[in-house]
Amino acid sequence: MKNLNTKTISKNKKAFHDYFIIESFEAGIELCGTEVKSIRQGRVNLKDSWCSIVNGEMLLNGMHISSYKEGNIFNRDPLRVRRLLMHKREIMKLFGSVNKDGYSLIPLSLYFKGSKIKVQVGLCKGKKLYDKRACMAERSAKRDMQRALKEQNK
Length: 154
Description:
CATH class: Mainly Beta
Strand content: 35-45%
Number of helices: 4
Number of domains: 1
Distance between the termini: 46 Å
Strand order of the largest sheet: 1-8-9-2-7-5-4
Structural class: alpha+beta
Helix content: 25-40%
Shape: globular
Radius of gyration: 18 Å
Number of strands: 9
CATH superfamily: Small protein B
Order of helices and strands: EHEHEEEEEHEEH
CATH topology: Small Protein B, Chain: A
CATH architecture: Beta Barrel
Largest sheet: 7 strands, antiparallel
């Protein structure tokens, strides 16, 4: 198998703040030509997006891809629902987890894998406010330790 290089296009930082990531999956995404050109320019936002499973298909809702300025009549709605491409078995497994255990499906990142555009979808559980505070305190403590070590090594 060829070693395909990956290049991150967009990351959903808010998802890492709001959710515990239990497991992540890779999925393809169904796009039209002008959307691909706009993504190549980096004009995409994953901030308030989520995934849903309807009739055995996984759909990506709320992802904003800005209109391609040379696209004229071929541009699509920036917030349209896009289909994710995964194996039926994986989709049914995720559907069971979402319905039974109360998890959410959140897109974590969008990236190029070779010439294809892929989405990393996370099976997530929501954080409570005290969990968010604990994570921020832990991150702050790590940052302070790194600063102290840097000062000590000078």
